[in-house]
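User: Design a sequence. Structure:
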């Protein structure tokens, strides 16, 4: 069994980005810049955004963290996004989700200019992905593609089962794996909460992507011998023995599933780190597009 170590793969991606940034700044260009908006103080969102900002610094990107109060008005948030859209020095914009209930996530997603939408959530970028056109791919599925590439996982002609159909992970993942691209060309089944015979379908998977957000949902009796298992779950589960009072749990019961697999991602230390690698790669691309547009 190969452990698909996100730390190793993400570091390789980041080293590559860092050396590209160095070569641009040595030529006198400004570094890429990512703006992140965090509304309120959801614990998990705080952690993710802090990690994004830290990773930007590590590879020589500039970042701007804009913190807004949880009761900020939707209008105010949309105005903040509009200012960043107009700021030529900002290459990428992300608004950390989820947002408080009084704010429409869809309106916010659509307010970000598609050329700066490094999360790839804008319908224009989602449409481009479906049609195989260049655009921004959501960071988690993009990171998973980078992980498959790093470990030279053969995907062509294989049966991939994606459990979960969210706009952030499952749906774009299913499109990427079925596309005629490197580390794509799979036959894809997308399963979800209404799927009948989920266990039997998972058992057919050569590549199983679990992205449903239910800790330890995928058990050994759902996994074919020799499968590749990608665990997207990052649920916080209360644990009084842990320093922070919780542990991060994946969607896969790792201990019992891992021995059956050819390769599997750990949680933590797997897909989560690749999500940041995907985001940073998108941000560099936005920067390059922005420089060329001048
Ligand atoms: N919330 C959960 N995942 C994500 C993500 O990839 N981007 C943003 N902006 N918010 C999220």
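Assistant: Done.
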């Amino acid at each position: 069994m190969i452990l698909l170590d996100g730390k190793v793969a993400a570091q390789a991606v980041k080293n590559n980005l860092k050396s590209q940034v160095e070569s641009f700044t040595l030529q006198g260009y400004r570094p890429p810049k990512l703006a992140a908006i965090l509304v309120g103080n959801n614990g998990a969102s705080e952690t993710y955004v802090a990690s994004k900002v830290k990773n930007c610094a590590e590879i020589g990107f500039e970042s701007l963290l804009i913190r807004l109060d949880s009761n900020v008005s939707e209008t105010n948030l949309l105005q903040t996004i509009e200012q960043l859209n107009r700021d030529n020095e900002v290459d990428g914009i992300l608004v950390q989700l989820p947002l408080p209930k009084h704010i429409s996530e869809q309106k916010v997603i659509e307010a970000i200019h598609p050329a700066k939408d490094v999360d790839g959530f804008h319908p224009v970028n989602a449409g481009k992905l479906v049609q195989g056109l260049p655009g921004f791919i959501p960071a988690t599925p993009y990171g998973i593609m980078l992980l498959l590439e790093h470990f030279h996982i053969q995907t062509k002609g294989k049966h991939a089962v994606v459990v979960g159909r969210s706009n952030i992970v499952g749906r774009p993942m299913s499109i990427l794996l079925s596309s005629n691209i490197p580390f794509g060309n799979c036959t894809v089944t997308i399963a979800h909460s209404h799927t009948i015979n989920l266990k039997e379908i998972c058992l057919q998977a050569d590549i199983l992507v679990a992205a449903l957000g239910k800790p330890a949902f995928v058990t050994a009796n759902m996994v074919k011998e020799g499968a590749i298992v990608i665990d997207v779950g990052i649920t916080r589960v209360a644990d009084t023995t842990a320093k922070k009072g919780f542990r991060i749990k994946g969607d896969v019961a790792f201990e019992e599933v891992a021995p059956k697999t050819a390769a599997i991602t750990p949680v933590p230390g797997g897909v989560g780190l690749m999500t940041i690698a995907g985001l940073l790669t998108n941000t560099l691309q936005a920067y390059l597009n922005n420089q060329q547009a001048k």
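The chain has a mean pLDDT of 97. The longest strand covers residues 33-39.
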